[in-house]
User: Fold this.
Amino acid sequence: MFLRPFLRLKFVLENKNMASFQYNQLIHFPNLNSLMKLSLGLVFFTIISTALVYAETIPVNVDGNSFDVQYASTGLSVTEIESDTESMSLIFSVDVVDLTGTLDVTFERTFFDSIYDGDDDLFFILADGDEAISEEIKTTSQSRSLSIKVPSGTEELEIIGSVFDNSKSFEFVLVEEPIVEEQIVEEPIVEEPIVESMFDNSCGLGTILKNNMCVLDERCGSGTVLVDGECIVEESSVKSTTVSKSMSKELIIGMVVALVIAGIIGIILGLMSKANKNNN
Assistant:
């Protein structure tokens, strides 16, 4: 009985404290207009920050000519850019403050480009000598934009292309070659020796003149020659025939004499052998 008023008072006090707490929260919670203003402020801040980032430029000297390189960086800072015309590259001195920094850089084609056989080629990018991850994010007829991931600890970022200062115009001077007149070389005229006509008897015996050459006379038979329009026996053949006949006769006579002598010797030996038998 005595506790019921006390509990009712406690319940009223708790409800009052809860209503007061909810009222305080509603007072401190921003309304819709405040949220809209905050959102618009963040959007404008982002746009302004982006514009300020892409407005960053740094000069670089290429063969005595200065060019401005436009870039944006996140997690790193660029302190200097140098050019190397021998390797056709740009060397960025960087200081990476995050685990991985990002460098977005834009090159005007008239200043720096990578071309192969008249077409766009990839830029080759090294971070302290190691190949870096990169992506070409925008390409136009006037410029090319790259986004490069730069690891922590990188000090030099090298971007290799193929051409510097592509806006130069080259003048070609045509050199006229001297006209060389053709010289006609006259070949010396070689006079052929005049061969006087030769008579048939100008060649040796048994030959005749044919096409200014002495050839065998085939008009007569073998062993004969044409003399005064008649074929006569050639002296050499007659002599050879006579010699051969005389040699054959001598050979026959010699053989007969040898046989006779051999027969006589045989008879003598036979008689001697018979006489010895009789004596015994």
